[in-house]
Amino acid sequence: MPARRLARSKTTVQSRRPCSSSSPRAIRAASSRSTARTLGRPTDSRRQRCDNGADGGAGSGEHSAASYAPDVSITPPDPTLEAAARERLAGLATPAGALGRAGELGVRLSAMLGAVPPPELTDVRLVVFAGDHGVAAHGVSAYPAAVTPAMVRSLHAGTAGVSALACAHDVGVRVLDIAVDDDLDGLPAEVVAHKVRRGSGAIHLEDALTAEEVRRALEVGRAVAAEEVAAGAQVLISGDLGIGNTTPAAALVAAALGLPAEDVVGRGTGVDDAGLARKTEVVAQALRRAGDRTADPVDTLAALASADLAATTGFVLGAVEAGVPVVLDGLMSVACALTAERIAPGAAAWYVAGHRSTEPAQSLALEKLGLDPLLDLGLRLGEGSGAVAAVPVLRSAVALLRDVALLSDLLPG
Fold first, then answer.
1. Count of CB atoms within 10 A of residue 338's CB?
2. How far apart are the C-alpha atoms of 118 and 173, rounded to whole Å?
3. Which stretches are tagged as biased composition: Low complexity (predicted)?
4. Of 150, 116, 113, whose CA–CA distance to 130 is shortest?
């Protein structure tokens, strides 16, 4: 079993548990212009940083973001435990291969969780990283950016789509403002304390982040993962929230895989054909602007991502460094996981793909990572919803390997 780098304790629980007794659904104390033209100009509100009002546009940092690459050491899941789990699977009182992918998942989870048979999954946690994106002002989404803060409030109140799923499947939820273009007055400090900036740059016109902001966002994500692991999390899920976020996420995948914009861009929140064309051109312009900086994954985050996506990348890195499996959700989650694998090769050994989204970039990234999603329900909600919906599959896989009798026990001698 890989050594856990963080001691676990129930004394510092940060994650919100769903369906509290005081409220059955609360999650507590958690244009048609030619697209061949350049689309718009940087929006001042999305360039505003949270520290000293410094400009967050391209080239505003003293150092390349690549110099801030985190030093992450990945220990793979224990191959000895995986072999023992596979032997146990073969010895169950079931026909050979009868458990299909559930059996294989149980084997992987045994190695990840450090025991054969695997322990019951009693502490699964979702962290949703929220942020706004400068591209949202350029016709890439069916909804205005004002929806983002409203949805943060809904998530905190326990009334969002993923809240219902988390309540049903006993998953803790925590929502964090990383780059929402709003002060979120009235929400507790724990929601807004990690804010890196208000909004991120419009990536076809300017860098999303400065090098220093990338560093801060990665550190925030890793620190949040450490908090959740120390509080007892067995499995972590990364969730997203932010109008326009499928645009930078698609750009991240295109940069990582060397693909053109038209191969990766999808309809996101449901844009029409004109919106899809605008979105594709935004991503194409962003890739051209970034140029060969995309050869480095951390510099790619500065050029093409956002503060919330960088924080999600750090969260994934922090989880796998601690030896905790991560269930991936839709495009944003998978794009960040792909970036994490670029930063720290071997991270993908700790990934489980929760579901297949309708975004083409997500499927392309999953293929690159060698992951086959557990569910394919046509979901495109985000928030971590598809991954949370897959939690019962994980629990089923654990139960099968843990509780089914061995044939040798039924037929002694």
1. 29
2. 24
3. 15-38
4. 150
Which pTM value belongs to this model? 0.86
Beta bridge partners of residue 200, listed in sequence order? 133
* DSSP class of 172: E
> Catalytic residue numbers?
383
Q: What is the pLDDT of residues 28-38, one digit of tens each?
A: 233 332 333 33
Give the pLDDT confidence score for residue 367 in this predicted structure: 98
Calpha distance 39→330 (Å, rounded): 27
- Which residues lie below 8 Å from residue 50, measured CB to CB, with a gap of 6+? 195, 196, 197, 198
Amino acid found at 299:
D
Domain residue spans of the chain: 44-75+121-395, 79-116+403-410
Distance CA 259, CA 327 (A): 25
Say how many residues make up the chain: 413
Strands, E assignment, 53-207:
124-131, 171-179
Question: Could you confirm whether domain 44-75+121-395 is CATH 3.40.50.10210?
Answer: yes
**Helix 246-257 crosses helix 360-369 at what angle (to 10 degrees)?**
40
Give the pLDDT band of residue 328 (cuts 50, 70, 90): very high
Q: What is the CA radius of gyration of the chain?
A: 21
Q: How far apart are CA 141 and CA 243, in angstroms?
A: 7
Residue 326 near residue 222 (C-beta atoms within 8 A): no
> What whole-number distance in Å separates Cα of residue 284 and Cα of residue 293?
15
